[in-house]
Prior knowledge:
- This protein is α/β, with parallel strands linked by helices.
- About 45% of the residues lie in helices and about 15% in strands.
- α16 links the parallel β12 and β13.
- α5 (about 100-115) runs parallel beside α7 and α10 packs antiparallel against α12.
- The longest helix is centred in the middle third of the chain and has 30 residues, at about 300-330.
Amino acid sequence: MALIGIVIVSHSKQLALGVRELAAQMVQGQVAIAVAAGIEDPENPLGTDPIQVYEAIASVFSDDGVLVLMDLGSALLSAEMAIEFLPEAQQEKVYLCEAPLVEGAIAAVVAAAAGRDIHQVMAEARGALLAKATQLGVVSRPLSLVTPITTNIESPTREIRLIVSNRFGLHARPAAQFVATAARFQSQILIRNLTRNTELVRGDSINQVTTLGVRQGHELLITATGSDADEALAALQALFTNNFGEDNVALNSPPAFHHEVTPTTYGELSGIAASPGVAIAPVIRYQPTHITITEYHVDDPDAEWQRLQAGINTARQEIQAVFSQASLQIGDAEAAIFDAQLLFLEDPVLLEAAHQRILDNHINAEAAWQAVVDEVATSYRALEDSYLQERVDDVVDVGRRVLRLLAGNAAANLHLESPAILVATDLTPSDTAGLDPTKVLGICTTSGSATSHSAIIARTLGIPAVLGVDAQVLHLADGTLMALDGESGRAWVEPESDILDLLAAKQEAWQTAQQEARATAHQPAITRDGRQVSVFANIGSINDVQVAVASGAEGVGLLRTEFLYLDRTSAPTEEEQLLVYQAIAQVLDNRPLIIRTLDVGGDKPLPYIKVGFPEANPFLGWRGIRFCLARPELFKTQLRAILRASVGHQIKIMLPMIATVTEVRAAKVILGEAQAELNQAGIAFDAAMKVGIMVEVPSAVAIADRLAAEVDFFSIGTNDLSQYVMASDRTNPRVANLVDALHPAVLRMVQQTVQAAHTAGISVGLCGELAADTLATPILLGLGLDELSVNPQSIPGVKQAIARLSIVESEAIAASALQQDSAERVRELISTSITPPA
C-alpha cells in the first residue's frame, strides 16, 4: 500500500491546523499530514517560511511521494524554494498541487488512505472543487472527475439498493468511510443516487461519491463487480445499517432495513431516539421559569456593569459546582460541556460587547447581556455545521443562568417527589446533569436532537429519552400514564395493555442485561495472564460512594473533600467532617478509602478565606498543600476528623499538589500534632494509618525517589500533571489540545514515578481522567500501575478492558508508546496493537 505524505502550506497557522484536523478526521490518522504555516512574528504572524516547508516535507517524506497543497502568493514561492533544499533524488518525489486547500486536502488524504498512487491522489485533489460545484448545482451533471469507469465483464456483478437513514446523509466523514471501505476490496464498486437520478460513479473516489449529493432518505444503488463482490457489498451495507457510527437517528426517514415496523397505533407519538431503554410512568411537565427582559435607561452605567459582572461571577460559581458534580456523575469527558460554558463566560469579545452596550446606550445589564447572547446564538445557528449549530443550547443555557441571577430568581427545582417521565419543550445541559435517574425514569421533549449535549448526558445517566415529539404532549395533565422506548424513538400516551406487555418484556430484558453487566463489574479485574489490578472510584459526596459500590468499586482511590468546604460561609467543623467520613467508610464496608486533604485555593477559592491579592495564574499559585500549610488550623481540623474516622476502617490520607520534600515533612509535623492532641484527649485513631501524596507536579516526578522515602503510596493525577508537563492551561482553548495525558512526555513521567515507587517498595495508583480511558488501559498496565481510580460509571468498562489484556502484551505496547513522538501516534499504536482475546 502506498504511503503518501501530505503537506499543507498556508499563510495562516490556524487555518492550516484546522484543515489538518478536518482531513485527519476523515481517515482516523492513517495518513501522515504535516503543516508549514505562519511565521514567528507576534505582530504579523501571517506568512510562509521556506525552511518550515522543507522541514514539513522531510517529516512526512516517502518514496511513494509527497503532495504539497498551498494557499496564495508566497506559499507557492516558499514551497518551490523548499524543494531546492532537498537531495536531488527526493525532489522528484515531491509534487506541488494547485488544488483548493480545504477540499483538496480532504480528497487527497482519503485517496492516500485508500492506497492510491501519487498521481491518482493529485487528480483527486484537483477534482475536489468540481465535486463541490456539482453538489451546489453550479455544475449540472455528475462529472467523471478522475478516471473513467471500466467494468470487468468476466466477473459477475452484484447489487444492493438501500435507503440512507443517517441524519446528514453522506457528508464528509461518512463519505470518507464509504470510500475507505470500498478501497479494501478487489471488486470495482460503483454507486448511483436513484433519488437524484445520477450516473454510476466510482465508489473509491471521494470526489465522485461527493457529487452524488446523498441526503437522508435518498435511495442508492451500489454495485460490485469482482471475486469478492458479496463481501464488499456486505461491508458497505453494514456502514449504512450502523449509521456510519454516528450517534444520531433518522428523523422522518423511511426505514432502510426494518420492514417489521408496525403502523402508528392510537396514542402513539414518534420522535428521535436519543437514549435507549424503556420507561413506563406518570408524566410530570417541567416548565422553566420564563424571564421577561425589559430594557430601561440607567444613569450610572458603571454601576450597571458592576452588577452584570457580579451576576457573571455567581454564574461561574454555579457552573463550577455543576461541573464538579457532573464529573462524578457522568464522567470528566461529558462534564467538559460545562468547562466550555465557563469559557463562554470568560470570552473577552462577549464581555467587551456587553460592557460597550451598557456604556454607549446607558441601558440595564439584563438588556445588554440578552442582546450579546442573542447575537452569539444567531451566529451559531447560521453555521452550516449541524454539530456547531447545536452548541446554541449551551449559549442559551449560560445566558439564561446569568439573566436569572440578575433578576434575583432562585434556580429551578427539578427534584421530583416520586418517579415520573419528565415532559418538557427542551432541557438544558444544566437541567439534565442535575437529574436523579432513580426519580426521572424517562425524558420526552418536543425539541432537541440525539447529538445535543442534553441527549449525551441522558445516555450517560442511563435515562431513556425520546425527543422531538409532537407538541400535543405539552398539554398532558400531570399524572397521565406514558410509556416510551428510547431505542425506537416512540412514546405512548395511556398505552393499551398489549403495548404495555410488549414494553414491559423489553424493559425486563434491558434490566437483565444491565444486571449482568453490573454483576461482571463486581468481579476482580484480572488480566489474561493472571495479574490482578485494583479498580477504585473517584468520588465527591456520600451519594457518590453508594453509586461507586453498586458499580463494582473495590474501594475509593480519591475522595475529593472540597464539597465539604464549598457553598457555605464558614469552614466545616471537625464534627461535621467526622460524620461524613464515617458515613462514607461505613458504606465501603472495610474497603480502602483514600481521603485527599483539602485541594482549594488559586483556581478554586473559598469565599470565607481572604487571599489578599489576585493571582495572575492561579494554576501556578496558592493551592493544594501550599494553601493548607499556610492555614495550619484549618488543615489540622481536617486531619483530626480523618484520624478519628479511621478507627475500624481502612482509611488513608493523601496530600495534594506536593512539589517538595519539605512540604511533605511540614504536613507530617501537623499530622503528628493532631495525633498528639487526640492521644492526650484519649480519643482513639488508627496509629498505623498510611499517608500518601498526589504526584501531579513535574518536580514531584523528578524527586520521586526522595518522596517515596517519606510516604506510603503515590497516586498520579494526570489531569494536572499533563498541563504542567506541557506548560498548557487545559481551560485555554488555544493550547488545550496540547494537554493530552497520552503524550509520550506525560507517559514517561508516569513510568518514572512507577519505577521510583516500586524501587522503594510502595504502591502507585493513577486517579486522573486517563485511568477511565480504556484506550489507555494497556499502557497503564504495561507501565506497572497497581491500581486505577476512575469515575464510578467507568468501572465496568475499565474492568472489562483489563480482562481482555495480558501484562506481556501491555508491556510491549507501553514500551513502544514511550518511543512515539505525539499523542496521536500513541493512539494509532494502541488501536493497531491490541489483539482480541482468544
